Amino acid sequence: MAMLNKLKPSEKFLKITYKLLYDLLLILGAFFIASMLADGLLPGLISDLVGLWKIAVAILFNIALIVLIGRILNVKIAEKLNKKIAWPLFIVLGLLVINSVVKLKNFLILIILIAAAAAVYYFYQLFSDDD
Fold it and tell me: Kindly report the CA angle at 38 between 36 and 41, in degrees rounded to 5?
């Protein structure tokens, strides 16, 4: 049993790892958005070399590690909504939706745009609420 206690990482190490994983999540998110934009401008540039699914798996693995270490450290997450970052993300989302429906049939484009408009309305109501 004494050997297992020696293998257990210290709390200081876990806190540093937790903070570094958050920084890595920001970097991976920015890289994922930049990769999607680059792949939209020059199709096949990123998806043939790296593959967007690999970046998405890395992001999900990073989030899983953050949750796991957060539970070990009993980290309390604030229920604060960051409204400043929402509008640039909506613009990127809109560009990606428009880029993805360019070569589809007209009826399918109409359905996707109606669903996207409903989602945008919902998010607008969510973020415009001044609590």
Answer: 110
Q: What is the DSSP string of the chain?
A: -HHHHHHSPPHHHHHHHHHHHHHHHHHHHHHHHHHHHHHHHSTTTTTTTT-HHHHHHHHHHHHHHHHHHHHHHTPPPP-----TTHHHHHHHHHHHHHHHTTTS-HHHHHHHHHHHHHHHHHHHHHHH---
Confidence (pTM): 0.58
Q: pLDDT for 16-59, tens place per residue?
A: 899 999 999 999 988 888 888 887 777 777 777 877 788 888 99
Neighbours of 21 (CB within 10 A): 20
Which has the closest alpha carbon to 110: 122, 97, 121, 123? 97
